[in-house]
């Protein structure tokens, strides 16, 4: 079962006054925005606009996957408390809206959380855009709820990715020889405020969307988003985005997948030098840069609020990274030896160039055959894959239906991605993985897997 986070906000300028709302649907497994909705609703109160925002967010989520579970986050204490059943709904304008919202999903599949306004900036911005449009309308007329906002503000968004100099091996060795490379996480947008709203696919893979914390009044303020879409492109975008936002190949009755969020450890002193650093070497700790990277990823994961457990490789750099993240999330760190890095034998601590100079025949054989071990009896990629697959099976069984953070290394992350895609062993040489990057794979009960994210470094920006 897919899980969404809905962030919603609404407001009016005058209370009552020109009003509008914005809603964002986020994939809980990846933290990526999959849909947006906003609408100008003419003259209304703050609270009515906020309920309209909630309703639009739930309907948009339902249009993406009616079997999903939803966690709603709003900065309106009133709406959160009333929809949670702790406060009574007295105002006649809000009762029918609350009733409609309660019927979109079964009650046991929706939860509510109050968040500070500064953590609700995305929905707040969309609401402000809608209120700007409402000011230009006749006070007695509201924009049709089915109006797409493609032409008025459907700016494409993207998950940022890092780019850095590639190693000579094109990123094959986990080691510290692997440098950052650009990959992106797809992000789509829904541009209407009804259950039929459909998303537009992310089309700017080089843009950056950094995330950004006592209860305040139930009105909203915001920034502005903008953009434009032609009618022809919008139709094609919607069709493509439906495929991106679909819950996957697995049928609904398989239940929620085990979701493995894969975090490569932060930098060590060997990382910028691009030296082989596996499980048979000096076992370095994080550098100051690496610790800061760990703190940033911890904040990003805390904002998502989806990680339920943390498991780490036994090596020092992963345990230190995991400790920083787990402390922020209020979780313990469990260690699994299957997540350790490959042993690079006599190549530990050397650069790729040094290995080529000292052991050219061994290196060429290793690059050509995953069954070949590094010089001095290290671990082959073939052997490592068997170990990593066993750890995967063990963890998927232990965390069925849950989201678990695995803090590990380049070879385990690349291997898990390769196996999930059914790619050949040489695919390891065609992936780059940045320090402190996030990737995500969901594993279903029928044995199928779905890669949802790879090498995301937007949290480091």
UniProtKB/TrEMBL annotation:
Residues 1-140 form the RNase H type-1 domain. Pfam families: His_Phos_1, RVT_3. Residues 152-239, 269-292 are annotated as: Disordered. It comes from Streptomyces hintoniae. Residues 152-223 have a biased composition (Low complexity). Residues 224-234 have a biased composition (Gly residues). This is Bifunctional RNase H/acid phosphatase. InterPro entries: His_Pase_superF_clade-1, His_PPase_superfam, PGM_Phosphatase, RNaseH-like_sf, RNaseH/PGlycerate_mutase, RNaseH_domain, RNaseH_sf. SMART domains: PGAM. PANTHER family: BROAD-SPECIFICITY PHOSPHATASE YOR283W-RELATED (PTHR48100), GLUCOSYL-3-PHOSPHOGLYCERATE PHOSPHATASE (PTHR48100:SF62). SUPFAM superfamilies: Phosphoglycerate mutase-like, Ribonuclease H-like.
